[in-house]
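Run log, item B.
One chain of 272 residues. Sequence copied directly from the ordering sheet:
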Amino acid sequence: MSPVEREGASWQRKRTIRSSLASVRHRFISALSTRTTTWSGKAPTVSFTFDDFPQTAVTAGAALLKSCGARGTYYTAMGLLNTRNGLGDHFTLDDLHFLHEEGHEVGSHTFTHVGCRSISHSRFAAEIERGRSAIREMAGFQDSGNFAYPFGQITWRTKRTFGPAFTSCRSTFPGLNGPQVDLNLLRGNALYGDIERVEQAKQLILEAENRRGWLIFYTHDVRPNPSAFGCTPRLLESVIEFAVQRGCRILTVREALQECQPSPGNLSHGKQ
């Protein structure tokens, strides 16, 4: 085996180990501190969510959803207001007011978009409160009560402590929601890239149709040359159209949660 081949094999082994560890960690966190409710199963449902959020998620994303009479959920980190990074220009106050007036959902996403594993537990708590307060004070309305974990970072302690403080918390753990839905860990599926990724998204929609489940997509920027964490308008449009063609309802997270049957007090912390 050549040095290049050995290096490639070593990289592949490390990647496999990391993937296995992530899978174990996902199962562990999924099993603990659950707050469950029951999905109605009346009809397959798809939600489109946008994290952070870049301005193109409004100019392109909201327009594509509106074309079929649907709305999206925008998880907002107010510290990104009027800034620019690899995702492009971020939202303005006018964007927030537009979304609110058009019936889109504005959820929260901390203030500076910081992950729970990069700061202390107390600082993360302050980030959450600051983010929610900033929406109220700067935009003039309350967030929806639904939250998304920045970077998809979540620990058992974070889930246990902050999950019950919100109506729901969306993760980046893939899969469908239902028949049992963990409000502390809604399942979310990345919608990244261009049209070559459409078949993967279609398979998820077909699974939601078959199981009458609730499928949540998440992305960031929506532009012809997206970041690694965004998608093209062509991909988003194709996925929306396919969902509609298959008879799926397109609802915001807030709207979809109204289809659930609450299970008061059903909070399990798992084995201590």
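Observations after the first pass:
- Helices lie at 3-31, 56-66, 93-101, 121-139, 156-162, 198-211, 233-245, 253-257.
- The first strand starts at residue 34 and ends at 39.
Flagged for discussion on Thursday.
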